[in-house]
Design brief:
It contains eleven helices and 13 strands. β1, α1 and β2 form a beta-alpha-beta unit. α1 crosses α8 and α5 runs parallel beside α6. The structure holds uridine-diphosphate-N-acetylglucosamine.
Length: about 350
Amino acid sequence: MSETMQPKILVTGGAGFIGSHTVVDLVENGYEPILVDDFSNSEHSVLAGLEAICGRRLHCHKVDCRDRAGLTNLFESEGPITGVIHFAASKAVSESQDKPLMYYGNNLGSLITLLEVMGEFGVRDLVFSSSCTVYGQPKKLPVTEETPVAEAASVYGATKQIGENILRDLIASAAPHRIMLLRYFNPIGAHPSALIGELPLGAPQNLAPLILQSAAGMRGPIQIFGDDWDTPDGTCIRDYIHVLDLAAAHVKGLAWMAGQSEAPLLEVLNVGTGRGTSVKEALEAFERATGRPIEYEVGPRRPGDIEKIYADCERVERVLGWSATRSIEDAMRDAWAWQEALGGR
Ligand code: UD1
C-alpha cells in the first residue's frame, strides 16, 4: 500500500507517554498517524525517537486542541482524517487540585473543540482516554465496565468523568459518531528500543518513574504510602499494564469501530491485565527484572489513595480480541533501559 492510501489517524497528545507508543503501533499496523501536541508536558525530542523506531518521517503539529482555528487548519491540510485518538490532557492529580480551572479548561475545552471540528469535517470515529479513576474504590473486585462510577476524588478524575458524560450525551443526541472510551489502569514501561518512554517533566508523582529515579540514584528510597491497608502485604494494589499493550488496544479499537455498520455507537472498555500487584510486589518485580536493589521506607498513607483496584478484562477480550501480553517484569525491564538511556534526566 502506498503511503498516501494509509488511513490517517489524528493522535492528540501524540508526543506524550501513551500517545507516542500508540503512534508506533499505528505505523506497524498500516495507519498514517498525524501527531498533534502542544508540548506543554512533552518534548520535541520524542519525535526523533519515534521516527527512528518507525523508520520514516512523521507529521507532527504543535497545536493546542482548544485552538479551533489551528485544529480546523490541520483537518483541512492533512485531510481526510479517518479517526481520532484523543490523549491530549493534563493528568497530574495533585496539580489538578491546585489549578481546577486549568484542568477543567484544558481537558474539557480541548475535547469539546475537537468534537466540534470532527463534526464539521464528518470524522466519526474517536477513541477517548479515560481512567479507572472513574470507579473510585470499588466494593467488588475485579471491576467490570458495569461497576458504578464513584464520586470523583480529584479534579483530574472529574474531568475524565465529565469527558465520558459529554461523549455519552453526544451519542444520545444521535450524532453519527462511533466512540470508544478506554478506561486505563496503571500504564508503565517503555518501548524496548529505549528510544521513547515516559518523560517526567518536573518531580514525578507516580510509582514507576519514582522507582526508576530511585534506582538511578537520582532520589532516595521509595516512600511506600502505608503498609496497613487491608491487602495481603498491607500495601495498595494496582493493575500495572505495559504501555505497548495499552497502545495496541487503541489500534484494535479503531479497527473495530471501522468495521461496525451502525452509528451512533458507544463502547466502554477496561484496559488492564486483570492482575493485581501490590506496591511491594511492584518493587520486587523491578528488582527481578533489572537485578538492581530498591530501597524503601514505609510512610503514611497518601490522602485520596485507593486501597485496591484491578480490571476485569473479559469485555475487552471479547470485543477487541485483545489481552495484555507483557508481564510487569517486561515493563520494568523496558522502563529501566529507557531510564538508562535518559542518563540521569
Ligand atoms: C494515580 C491517580 C490516577 C491516575 C494515575 C495516572 C490518585 C488517587 N490516582 O493513580 O487518577 O490516573 O495516577 O497514572 O492519585 N505509591 C507509593 N509511593 C509513591 C508513589 C506511589 O507507595 O511514592 C503507591 C500508591 O499508593 C499506589 C501505587 O503506588 O498504591 C501507584 O501509585 P500511582 O503511580 O501514583 O498511581 P495511582 O495512585 O494508581
